[in-house]
Amino acid sequence: MIEADVIVVGSGASGVQAAWALAEAGHAVALVDVGERDRHYAPLIPPLDFLTLRRTDPDQHRIFLGDDFEGVPFGPVRVGAQLTPPRQYLTRRADELAPVLADDGFAAMRSLALGGLAAGWGAASLPWLDEELADFPFGRADLQPHYDRVAARVGICGASDDLLAVLGPLDPLLPPAPLDSNAAAVLRRYGRRRASFRRRGLHVGRARLALATRPFRGRGPCPLDDMDFWADGARAVYRPRFTVEELEERFPRFRYLPGLFAETFRENTAEQYVELDCRALHDGSRACLRGRRLVLAGGVFGTARVVLQSLGAVGRPRPLLSNAYTYFPALDLNLVGKPVRDRRHSLSQLCMAYDPDGTRRHMVSAQLYSYRSLLLFKLVKESMLSHADSIRVLRQLSDLLVILGVHHEDRPEPGKWLALRPAAEGAVPALEVHHQSSPRTLARQARDERRMRRFLLELGCLPLGAVRPGAGSSIHYAGTFPMRTRGGPLTCTPDGRLRATRLVHLADGSGFPTLPAKGLTLTLMANADRVGRAVAEQLP
Ligand SMILES: Cc1cc2nc3c(=O)[nH]c(=O)nc-3n(C[C@H](O)[C@H](O)[C@H](O)COP(=O)(O)OP(=O)(O)OC[C@H]3O[C@@H](n4cnc5c(N)ncnc54)[C@H](O)[C@@H]3O)c2cc1C
Questions:
Q1: Is 199 exposed, middle or buried (0-12, 13-18, 19+ CB in 10 A)?
Q2: Which end of the chain lies in a sparser environment, N or C, as judged by fewer CB atoms within 10 Å?
């Protein structure tokens, strides 16, 4: 039996921020995690920029293709193209320990890694407005101190540009990263017709990223080596494991407990404690932890599994949200015949926020990337030309290739749900997952995409098509036990307590009642800080 004031499950973006708030308040925190790590690739990657590595390293195939060729996608690339061989440990053991059945093809990416999905995330960090939080039991003013605290811990860069009106302030804000040539050209073009774009609801500015552009808490500055999908150069891109390391250094009452798979909890409300049963993965033995509170942050699928199993709610459907995602590969015609800047990071360069009806309630968000370090061979596979021809054409055009990734908001609908399936004695139960948008939602998304495509053309980029990788491909999930002012046992109170319990709080996306189009992770972290503080205040 391991004892702590608070047990937190999950070392992802949500879990580490909740743990920080609790540890900082002086509580003994035990952070339970499966905690898969990459011990293979990180030591193989030399500290070189992408082009030098491509030109000079005779062993580069080991990193770029993978020792088992796991970097070569044999089917169509659906989801997680950024999960290069050095990042594939993120999803290790998920199918074995936490299986999902998605007959209609929903991509439920689950991570059991130290740092969770954010060990490979794209770091786009966009705060939400009051209008986007309209269905939440709190507003932007309540969230602002938590946004700012998280910004001070993880380091968010950006500029006070046209996005300010649709993102709101963040303090501190690190200086923006230098733009690459594509982004600089597109931003110049936007600037020339800014009033017209703004009138039609489009705001364009420098991406806000969890990226240390200057020295920050022992990290950065960003090396601009275009290796961000492969390595954590200068620790510039924020990864939650950095917070675990800081927690271990700064708070003697914090303990990180990897190698444990949390299964069920039970409460003793008379004695005011909760016990968490876990499986120790190295030998299959049982471990039990006891705390005065339990904070679940296992990611939406991980938390649903623990809650539904613990409450015996097998077969009970819960709502599921995930932003619809479409991307437009395009050629940046602004740059034809012009030299390009080689030093760059690989993350999104510009952010576009489109407000279709002027209410800010149904915004569409998009991130503009230059396509280079994810390697051209993946595009060759998708091309209609012969292999040799497409390599020749793509080499000529590679400097002009950009990708605009567009996210739509998501709201509960009858076709979007998950449930825990009954399993035979001793078998691991699977989560059944469905996510089908109504025709009305699909029609709205199609309309907004037509407009984004037109904007892209007006910004000097020629769209080559639209790729819809399918439901779940945004890797943004939420909504299973929504926070409401009032609600049933499988909803949460505004401070994240699961109503069916007295001592269990949810600190990840499970509690979000809707999902605005802007990526959720910054808000996950701010909310986890908020929930962590609320729990800390309830304890003596
Ligand atoms: C390639 C990629 C790019 C992305 N880009 C962006 C972006 O630019 N912007 C953005 O906002 N979001 C982005 N995301 C999404 C973002 O990564 C996630 O929203 C975020 O990381 C979720 O964090 P979480 O802590 O809530 O859950 P998770 O990251 O899923 O973490 C779950 C944690 O819980 C642990 N766990 C789960 N179940 C158990 C259990 N039973 N027992 C013990 N431990 C358990 C796991 O080990 C893990 O540490 C991206 C994701 C990916 C994969």
A1: exposed
A2: C
Token pair for 220: 């950065």
**Domain for residue 429, yes or no?**
no
Give the β-pairing of 286-296 and 504-506: parallel
Is 73 part of a structural domain of the chain?
no
Cα(118) to centroid of ligand 1, in Å? 5
Give the position, in ligand 1's atom list, of the atom nearest the Cα of 298: 34
Q: Is the CB of 299 under 6 A from ligand 1?
A: yes
Domain-located, residue 228? no
Residue 382 has pLDDT above 80, yes or no: no
pLDDT of residue 77: 58
Measured from the CB, is residue 511 less than 6 Å from ligand 1? no
80 lines ligand 1 (CB under 6 A): yes
pLDDT at 375 over 90: no
Of ligand 1's atoms, which has the minimum distance to the CA of residue 260? 43
The better pLDDT of the pair 445, 392 is held by 445
Domain count for the chain, please give it. 1
Residue 380 scores a pLDDT above 90:
no
CA distance 452 to 405: 10
Residue 390 has pLDDT above 90, yes or no: no
Domain extent for 112:
1-36+97-120+239-290+297-321+477-540
Task: Note the pLDDT tens digit of each residue in 73-119.
Answer: 777 656 667 789 999 999 999 999 999 999 889 999 999 999 999 99
Distance 329 CA to ligand 1 centre (A): 26
Lowest mean pLDDT among 102-111, 393-402, 488-497: 393-402
Question: What is the pLDDT at residue 76?
Answer: 63
Say whether the peptide bond before residue 172 is cis (omega within 30 degrees of 0). Answer: yes
pLDDT score for 169:
95
Tell me how far the alpha carbon of residue 34 lies from the centroid of ligand 1, in angstroms.
13
The CATH number that applies at residue 115 is 3.50.50.60
Q: Is the CB of 201 under 6 A from ligand 1?
A: no
* Neighbour-count burial of 263, counting CB atoms closer than 10 A to its CB (0-12 exposed, 13-18 middle, 19+ buried): middle
Asked if residue 376 has pLDDT above 80, the reply is no
Q: Hey, which of 239, 300, 475 would you mutate to test ligand 1's pocket, going by the most ligand atoms within 8 Å of its Cβ? A: 475
Lowest mean pLDDT: which of 232-236, 378-382, 437-441?
Answer: 378-382
CA of 15 to the centre of ligand 1 (A): 9
Residue 117 Cβ inside 6 Å of ligand 1? The answer reads yes
Q: How far apart are CA 151 and CA 459, in angstroms?
A: 31
Give me the long-range contacts of 494-498 (CB less than 8 A, separation at least 24): 494/137, 494/138, 495/530, 495/531, 495/534, 495/535, 496/295, 496/527, 496/530, 496/531, 496/534, 496/535, 498/307
The predicted pLDDT at position 78 comes to 62
Please indicate whether residue 437, judged by its CB atom, sits closer than 6 Å to ligand 1: no
Q: Compute, in angstroms, the gap from residue 269 CA to the centroid of ligand 1.
A: 31
